[in-house]
Amino acid sequence: xxxxxxxxxxxxxxxxxxxxxxxxxxxxxxxxxxxxxxxxxxxxxxxxxxxxxxxxxxxxxxxxxxx
Length: 67
What we know:
By secondary structure, the chain is of the alpha+beta class. The protein has one domain (5-62). It contains four helices and three strands. Strands 1-3-2 form a three-stranded antiparallel beta sheet. The chain is globular. The termini are far apart. The model has no long low-confidence stretch (mean pLDDT 87).
């Protein structure tokens, strides 16, 4: 299975149009937020990670690790 890689603009759109600075702040400070995949100089995000975050799966798995 191939996972589509989203650029930052596609990620912003998928998350309701949040700004780039908010995305980078969330990467650093929000547990479970989709993390960066670097391909050379390009910054991408796995679509499966984004969908899991939107569904709330990432937060649930983070809670399970901390419990």
